[in-house]
Design goal:
A seven-stranded parallel sheet has the order 3-2-1-4-5-6-7, with helices on both faces. The two termini are 40 Å apart. The protein has two domains: 195 residues, 3-Layer(aba) Sandwich (Rossmann fold); 171 residues, Glycogen Phosphorylase B (Rossmann fold, 3-Layer(aba) Sandwich), CATH 3.40.50. The longest helix has 15 residues. The protein is built from 16 helices and 13 strands. 40% of the residues are buried. Helix content is 38%, strand content 14%. About 2% of the residues have low confidence. It is an alpha/beta fold. Pfam families: DUF2827 (PF10933). InterPro entries: DUF2827. This is DUF2827 domain-containing protein.
């Protein structure tokens, strides 16, 4: 049973959140998983219950981490396994033996699912893409928390294999990592208008079908055909390997005017903030059943025009529906024509619309405290009430 303070407030918990650091100083921008752990940790730290949070590195000790270790302490599983009330498995997997140990001492174990694992697994099966060395599907979780953008594709995958119903939980973001890496950039990496035709950036990871560069290229192509003088250049990151080694990609791309007119470049992988600051005015994006992403939030927080089809954050940037290339091209032309006239208002509006997603948002914090209550059996408030508070007044 959860303890309470003298004032009746549930006492703060000792919470661990797993990360899987492979080497010291590993970049926060390799993928979003470490950022996710940090943002969730910050949310719990801002609870009025004053939870104590440790990032638990399941892959062994590291001497250096790319964040403030005083603010977000890191420890190994062995070092902290006896001083946790809750362990949230997020960025590093807990083994079968570790699971048995935690359950024997009464620690609650939560699986926090923030990847489209169904899609990743079927692609591995179909295309022979290595994914698992030794597959272990943990069936000992006390709860499974799934962020909204992967519910549609992966909820049934999680619940069936892990033998437990899933709970949809709020997506959490914070500009802390963005601010850290952008601090040394001109204007802190924020958008500033520049004269002339616009530079378009396409920055999909191009790792699977969920976030791929081809539809954004088609959108940019349509906009270029309609108004060639409006687009100075298109840069496509994480695509050099496609342009060099994929006959199918090359075969399609050669029919684009952008390619024929030498207005598009295919380059390697770049971190978002410095690339935007140096090469971009407008960003075009497309997703397929992954309708929330830190990338969208980073772009909009910095004031860059974002043309996208992410329905769970449709109020951000310039939204077009589903796979509608013509609508996307129209929104791109609109962004090019109008963003500069009110660029400061645009950035303020984007940040206001991002506020409900922040790790410091009171409604979001209350919802996660309600999840902890349910996990521990306290049930001081229903999840329905928490969801109601969370979404009340968030439409912009």
């Amino acid at each position: 049973m959860q303890q309470h303070t003298a004032a009746g407030q549930p006492a703060g918990l000792r919470i661990g959140i797993t990360v899987g650091l492979r080497e010291s100083g590993e970049s926060l921008w390799v993928n979003g998983i470490k950022q996710n752990a940090l943002y969730l940790a910050k949310l719990f730290m801002h609870s009025p219950r004053a939870h104590r949070v440790t990032l638990v590195n399941t892959t062994g000790p590291v001497s250096e981490v790319p964040w403030d270790a005083q603010q977000f302490p890191v420890d190994t599983f062995e070092a902290c396994k006896d001083r946790l009330d809750v362990l949230i498995e997020l960025g590093g997997q807990v083994s079968e033996a570790q699971t048995r140990y935690l359950k024997a001492r009464g620690t609650k174990l939560v699986s926090y699912c923030c990847g489209a694992e169904y899609v990743q697994n079927i692609e591995a099966m179909i295309f022979g893409r290595p994914l698992h060395r030794d597959l272990f599907i943990n069936q000992g979780y006390d709860d499974i928390w799934v962020i909204p953008q992967v519910m549609q594709t992966s909820a049934g995958f999680f619940s069936t294999l892990r033998r437990r119903a899933v709970r949809e939980v709020p997506f959490v973001w914070d500009p802390m990592c963005l601010t850290q890496v952008a601090a040394s950039l001109p204007e802190a990496g924020e958008y500033r208008p520049r004269a002339g035709a616009k530079r378009v950036a396409i920055m999909e990871p191009n790792f699977d079908v969920l976030k791929f560069c081809l539809y954004p290229m088609l959108i940019a192509e349509q906009a270029y055909r309609a108004a060639p003088a409006s687009i100075a250049h298109v840069s496509v990151t994480s695509a050099e390997h496609l342009a060099r080694h994929s006959p199918e990609f090359i075969g399609v791309a050669q029919y684009l005017d952008l390619v024929r007119d030498h207005k598009i470049t295919f380059v390697g992988r770049y971190d978002t903030p410095p690339f935007l600051a140096q090469y971009a005015d407008v960003v075009v994006s497309h997703q397929w059943d992954n309708p929330l992403n830190y990338f969208y939030f980073d772009v909009c927080w910095q004031g860059y025009a974002l043309v996208h089809n992410a329905r769970l954050c449709a109020s951000l940037g310039y939204y077009y529906p589903e796979h509608n290339v013509e609508a996307g091209a129209a929104r791109l032309r609109e962004a090019i024509a109008h963003t500069d006239a009110g660029w400061e208002d645009y950035r303020r509006t984007q940040r206001a619309r991002l506020a409900p997603f922040l790790a410091t948002d009171p409604a979001r914090i209350a919802h996660y405290d309600a999840l902890l209550d349910a996990l521990l059996g306290a049930h001081r408030q229903t999840e329905a009430q928490a969801w109601g508070r969370l979404f009340k007044g968030t439409e912009a």
